[in-house]
Write a structure and sequence with these properties.
Alpha-Beta Plaits; 7-stranded mixed sheet; alpha/beta; 2 domains; Rossmann fold
């Protein structure tokens, strides 16, 4: 194993490397120069060990919008390693740190680029081999609560990287891509986006609390009904607001009431539990709608999508974030906002907002690292 160039590595959707690099620069400092090659599906940042450790410790849940996965890089090699080579690298790294190998979790992954996806079968095979050896030696166990998540990344450039992350702040799914089941009868592709959003943006406890059957949902711009269908199949009562038609299977749930109206003009007769919105409208306009519903107490939980313009997408997200923050500040409402460019998102990001004081996985907004 040799010393890697990268100190921290992030995975993202191919084509969004520049957006993630801009986000990393804003977070790490103007002197940071992340390496990003268009279409590679990853961004790397070079830094001395001490700086890399400080940066890694500063990562919090939802610090990054455009990153699916991240880890601090500890070592690198060429080609595809054998299991014994990985075990030796882990042992050597732990020895230099004055300890022994310990891991709470293992993730073997490759980028989501066309070349990276060809490495996914090798990742699966390597995961099985390395995991078996780690468990046999007592180096890997979910009971090791203070131990890191170990990452082994295969890059199409002919290299492999070994790294670690805090399990609370990184993904247990390879590449940060959720493996979730959505029934074949889902009425639209957007139903998959909702499934992913509910698993990525909410904790299990939050899902149990917020998705109780009988809770009331308003879906603005609902047609063809994928979002409404996802909430209805969980037993929630949905008011689907759209002038266009809903798919028959959405109405067949018996839990969806279709109201033909403009989503921007609609107002509920009483406070509801959820407002959800996936309208193909300018992101800033939807951000203001979200801010108004939340700041005026029309809903407690909000799930929404911001359609981003081509180029400078990170700046567009920050503008939308500022719009929501302004509305919530004027309304004197505490809130938690989480944003993520999901696997099922394209030129858009999905957000979750909870009104009220929370002790969840993220602060009101990610803090910039102190410089």
């Amino acid at each position: 194993m040799r010393t890697p160039k990268e100190a921290i590595l992030w995975f993202c959707r191919p084509g969004f490397e520049a957006d993630l690099a801009a986000e990393v620069t804003a977070w790490a400092g103007v002197s940071a120069r992340p390496a990003a090659r268009d279409g590679a599906g990853w961004v790397g940042l070079e830094a001395p060990d001490a700086v890399a450790a400080e940066l890694a410790a500063a990562v919090r849940p939802f610090t990054f919008v455009f990153a699916r996965q991240w880890f601090r890089v500890l070592g690198a090699g060429d080609g595809v390693p054998a299991a014994e080579e990985v075990l030796g690298a882990l042992e050597g790294t732990a020895r230099r740190a004055g300890g022994r190998p310990r891991a709470r979790d293992l993730v073997v992954e490759a980028p989501d680029s066309e070349a990276g996806r060809r490495l996914w079968p090798r990742c699966e095979a390597l995961d099985a081999a390395v995991r078996a050896e780690l468990e046999a030696r007592g180096w890997l166990s979910p009971r090791l609560r203070q131990a890191p998540r170990v990452h082994l990344a295969l890059l199409p450039e002919g290299r492999w990287l070994l790294g670690v992350s805090d399990p609370r702040n990184s993904s247990s799914w390879p590449g940060g891509i959720p493996r979730l089941h959505v029934p074949a009868e889902a009425p639209s592709r957007s139903a998959r986006k909702v499934e992913e959003a509910l698993h990525v943006l909410l904790t299990p406890h939050e899902r149990e609390k917020a998705l109780k059957p009988g809770r009331r949902v308003v879906d603005l711009g609902a047609a063809p009904g994928g979002w409404s269908w996802q909430f209805a199949r969980r037993g929630l009562l949905v008011t689907a607001v759209d002038n266009a038609r809903l798919r028959p299977e959405v109405l067949e749930t018996g839990l969806v009431d279709h109201v033909r109206a403009d989503g921007f003009r609609y107002r509920p007769e009483r406070v509801v539990d959820w407002m959800v919105c996936d309208m193909v409208k300018p992101a800033e306009r939807v951000a203001r709608l979200v801010g108004l519903w939340a700041s005026r107490g029309r809903a407690r939980w909000l799930l929404f999508n911001w359609k981003l313009p081509g180029g400078r997408r990170f700046e567009a997200v920050e503008r939308c974030r500022a719009i929501v923050d302004r509305e919530m500040t004027e309304g004197k409402k505490p809130y938690t906002l989480r944003l993520r460019h999901l696997y099922h998102d394209r030129d858009e990001v999905t957000g979750f907002l909870e009104v009220g004081e929370t002790r969840g996985r993220a602060a009101k907004r990610p803090r910039r690292r102190r410089r």
